[in-house]
Structures are given as C-alpha cells and as structure tokens.
Amino acid sequence: MFAEACRTAKGFTRPVATSIRYQDGTVTTALNSFIIVNRDGWALTAGHTFDTLVKHENDRKKMEEISRMSAPGQPGAPSSPVKMDPKFILNHSFWWGWDGVLISEVTVDRKIDIALVKLVNFKPEMVSNYPVFASPDSISLGKSVCRLGHPFVDPPTEFDPVHNAFRIPKIDSDAAMFVNDGVVSKIVTIKKAGNSLIDAVYMDTSTPGYRGQAGGPIVDVKGRVCGMQINTLALPFGFHSASPEGERNPVEDQYCCVGRGVHVKTIREFLDSKNIRYGFEDSDEEYTILERGGRPMR
Fold it and tell me: May I ask the CATH class of domain 3-72+82-287?
C-alpha cells in the first residue's frame, strides 16, 4: 500500500550522522533523519538532534573553567588536578547526508522539538523530488500512515587527532532506510508550549518510531508529509500479574509503545513563520499557486 509513497518520500529524506568523542576516549556515531523542504536547501529535523551540540558547548566552558581553577598559582587552586567528567564531549561533528554539505543557519524550537537548518554546498539536483505537505484537515483518527528514517545503524567510527576529524564509513541512505506503517491513533494539542508562538500539535501512531527515525517524515499513501517523527512513548497498560506464591513477577510492567510526530499543522505554521517556501496540498485550490510542473508551492 505504501510502496509508491515510500519511493516518493525517499527522494527527500536523508540521514544526519552525529559523531562524538568523549573525555574517556569513547567515540560514537548515531543517525537521525531530516526532510529537505525545498530547492533552496532548507531542511527540517527533530530539535533534539542538536542536544549533543548544546552539551558540547556547555562542556567546553566547564572544562575551561576547571583548567583555569586548577592552574598553578591560582588562588584557591586544589592541591591536585580536578578530574574531568569522563562524559564531557571533546569533539562533535555532523554529517548532513552528503560529503561536503554543511549547515549555516539553525533555528531550534526545543519545546515543540523541531529544527530548521540551511544546507550549504547543497545543489537542487541532489534531490530527485521535494515534499508536498498534506492539508492539516486531512489528518484524522484511523488514517493510514508510514514512517521513514534510518534506525539500527551504528557506523564504526574513528577519530583522527592529527586532522581533528572523525572517520566513518560511507552511509548509503537507501540501504539504511527503514519504514513501518500504522494508523493515526491520537491527536494532541499543547497551546503555545514554552516560549513558542505557535501551538504544538502532535500525532500519535499505533506503531513506535525507532532510534534513527527521528526527524524523518510520516507520510500518507500518496507520499504527502503528514508529520515528522520525534520520539516514542511507552504507555503503561495499568495491569500486572502475580505468581501464585505472591512473588514479584519480573514481567509485571506491561507497556504499549506508540510513535509521536509533529503534526503537519504545526510544521506548516513553523515554516510560514520563517517565510520558507514549501509544496503543499489543500482542498481549497483558490488559494493555491502552482509552481512550474503543476506542484503547488507556498
């Protein structure tokens, strides 16, 4: 049912790899996903993709402060050097879908969990097609949807101290792609969360998203973007079983895992607030301007 939709959505869905080197020497790379919105190189991803970058900046300041306080001759300096937290982040790097592609602008609304980035060294021909965002009114309970992203990929990573750079194997976006379908189970609205100027509308799905699918699209059977995956909720069933002897059952706690995505209504309002053009599909064509090729563009 979603074969054609996935072929469409694969064209504008790419992996973003986050590589980290910690104080204890551990080096890791984790994947999330992002949606390329238009030919200008604007893209959307989950806001929490940048949490490690924020931690890296905070850790850097803490390490500088510790080094300053521990310097010989510094008043009140401890008798022995202060040990650094082994999980301080020493080095941090993103890989945005292609070698050489970077980002120059980032806007993160962490309350909603959405981020807008501007890709640098991006060429429109790198993408076979661009997304069409669904009409918010078309999203209803029971609607069949499919989620795309890049889970279950943990690239082996090395850090080159000479060049101060990470080395990871080539990531094939198509080979790393994983999809799973479900239905819209619930729609949740949080009025202007935090300092946000728009409502945070979320769509919960009957199947969970997996680590690496965050930032990827949730599409309908025509490949139109209905939402963007951000996390998975573990909802307790509220019952348990006990052994006849009254001993604690090791599988007592039972949960239902559901996926959560940012609703297309909030995505479109977020893009509108930043004056970003995007393809859209609405029932009221009176207000639709068609771009060359017949695809509506806002």
Answer: mainly beta
Compute the CA torsion angle 197, 199, 205, 207 (nearest 10 deg).
30
HSE of 291 in the Cβ direction (CA atoms, 13 Å)?
13
Per-residue pLDDT of 235-268, as tens digits, reads 776 766 555 555 555 556 677 889 999 999 999 9
Taking CA 279 as the corner, what is the angle to CA 278 and CA 283, rounded to the nearest 5 degrees? Answer: 125
Main-chain dihedrals φ then ψ at residue 45, nearest 5 degrees = -150, 180
Low-confidence ranges of the chain (pLDDT < 50): 283-298
Q: In terms of pTM, does the model score above 0.70?
A: yes
How far apart are alpha carbons 159 and 166 in whole angstroms?
4
Q: How many residues does the chain have?
A: 298
Residues 264 and 139 sit within 8 Å (Cβ to Cβ): yes
Structural domain boundaries of the chain? 3-72+82-287
CA dihedral defined by 244, 247, 250, 255, rounded to 10 degrees? 70
In whole angstroms, give the CA distance from residue 187 to residue 273: 22
Identify the pLDDT of residue 286.
Answer: 33
Tokens 């790419």, located at residue? 14
